[in-house]
Specification:
There is one protein chain. This protein has 71 residues and is mainly alpha-helical. 68% of the residues lie in helices and 0% in strands. The chain is built from four helices and no strands. The longest helix is centred in the middle third of the chain and has 20 residues. It is globular. The two termini are 22 Å apart.
Length: 71
Amino acid sequence: VKPDGYDRFFPKSVPEDSAERREYAKDLLSNFSRRAYRRPVDDETLSRLVSLTDSLQKSGQSFEQSIASAM
């Protein structure tokens, strides 16, 4: 069961493939960061955020949890 507002933050299904999941994380974090920082996010910052999600998933967090932590 998805919580209220889930589709607002995760508009697509989470991909099974790790490369596709990483690209989806990049899209989500890019959109969020641009609004949060109120300016375009640079590639280095975005790369660090995506790497953080990778690391968190490897340590056992779900995709959704890792995105929330990166946000």
